[in-house]
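Cont'd.
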Amino acid sequence: MSHIHLPDGVLPVWLWASGLIATILIGTVLFRFIKKEEVTRRLPLLGMMAAAMILAASVEIVPIAYHINLTVISGILLGPSLIFLATLVTNVILALFGHGGITVLGLNTLTLSIEGILGYYLFRLFWKLFNRITPAVFLATFLALLISTFSMIGVVSLGTSHYEELIHQESQQGIFEFKLLKEKDDQHKKEAEKSEVNLKRFIAIVLPLGFIGWILEGVITTFIARYIQRLRPDLLRLERGSS
Amino acid sequence: MIQLSYLDYSAVEGKSWLHRGSPAMKMIGMGVVLFCIVTLANIPGLLLLYVILLGLFFLSRVPLKLFSLTLYPLIFAVLFVFLSGFRIYFILLIFLKVLCGSTGVILLLATTPYPLVFRVLGKFLPSLFLTALFLTYRSVFILLNVLEETEHAIHLRGGLQWRHPWRSLKNISNAFGHLIIKGIDNSEKMYEAMMLRGFKDKIHYRGE
Amino acid sequence: MKPEERVVELDCITHIYPDMTKVQICGLEFIVNSGERVGILGANGCGKTTLIKHLLGILMPKEGSVRVFGLDPVKEYSKIRERIGVVMQDIDEQILGPTVYDDILFAPLNYGIPKDRAEAMAKDVIERLKIESLQGKIVHYLSGGEKKKVALAGALVMAPDLLILDEPFTGLDPKSRRDLIETLNELNRERGITLIMTLHEVDLASEITDILYLMHGHGDLSERGTPEEIFGKFRDLERYNLDEPTLTKLFRGLRKEGLDFGDPLRVDDAIELIKRHWVKATKKE
């Protein structure tokens, strides 16, 4: 749910451009500071995990085009810096497949990588607290997705004035241009009142859908983590004995 | 399911004039489309753009199956219906922007093999990032085989039955777990192959 | 045997996998001399691929020694890498380039060979393997046999002295198998390339190897000999989960019936022997 499937041209230029610049800056810093040998060594793993995320985005779990992200489990397996790079690569390829806009690439990467990075740190925290895979992974996934959904809502809300402009575009197009002046003024007032962007309604739709998504992805990610723990516990890099 | 392999296959096997066109020109064209989507805020303009893109879509004989891919993002554009207070104008505007964007990008990728797209991107992107893109794209097809076979196996053995949602969910999760582990194993073999073949920092490609 | 003629020497190595499985590749010393075609026969899971990975420096032995071209492959693989071509069992992960042509150029360009020379090398190997029609193709649309050819091209482009193949015939149809055998034999004959391969197709062993090692259990290298020695005299192949070659079974069966044609391992040799006996028999009449 946190993956912004916003189309191009809806968000204001300053917003998506800032997202792109921030992503490029963070990506550059990461490429510079992670040792080149480390990145090279982990490139195939990054590629495979990004591929897994792309395929997860292609599989409809619930037939309202709901799909899981696999970002949290990828974050747990890859670590915070590589998950950022993996989500960037994932979003570039998904954008080329028409799954998400091109201009919103930066914003998508930022919100998705929040999931992965938070997922990684929350998992470490809850693992230390509970010493059990199930609550650690479920809570980490649930909270990471909750926070990234709110960040997505935050991003959308930043574009409110832009949406209002777009809505007002209609009245400025001269639909009522043949009316008398006074009526035109009244009409403008009514239009202005009606055309307020209704963020509350948007949030009221996104949050319940999101909540179902957080639970579902939390459950699925937990099962995946338990599967991995059974077959390749070394991948989870758990410190103490697990149950 | 997004038919990734079908999209890629169409790009490789298609023979229309658009398929034969220069990848750089097509990407510049996509850039123009994006520019129009971002700057245009009137319906007639966007409608014209969409009609042009649709025309190109059908003239270049891109398989109709791929047309549904262009409609997929509309599902999420519906959220904007709730933002706007059900203003028809705004909804139409958003839907047209969505359709122009998705049609343009699907048209690009359905008529241009990915190595050529990445080759153009390679002129602007750092080589390590480009290598990551190539490896990821390659990995998608390796894992797609695994995913399809796992899906078939689960289906044939009754693992997906909606009257047993909990068990089905567990089976789907295990399938993804299997995919991830297979992916990690494959990545280790891929790394071995890269080192054995002297990989330093980039995958070279024709026309570089 | 002069030391410089020895390409590979492996002596009783021990390896422990992450799941704590211990593999000891012991018994006979594994030696490969220059220009030889050496096969390692054994059932699944006996340690063939583990042995290969030690030769390539991918795995480090806990005990024992491995020498390839006189060097430790774990520490000094970069010094011998250009002399070794590899075709692993899992082809998909080995083919890295976006197109076939890009993949063949992968190693030469990585080694800093100038582009025009690298392209000439690629052209040479493409012609040799007759894969001109595959050059521009994207890798994931190739059949299994085509992918194998591409992997082989990628391994041969540097004109290696040693070619290591892990189960190269698995998954190939009979014609592709035949083509591959001819190509490998030609490379060995004309260029003197040393071949090391793991396989469990006993029927092919006599056509593609000069020396066979039998491996069983977990890394037990227990027999070494020519295919004639291994299959002709040695009867205990069941211990290795292997079946006798078809021709061996046939001629042994004929011998039981009083028709002794000898122990040919190749179809051509069998035809010759039968022809000779037939001529002799008809002359007697």
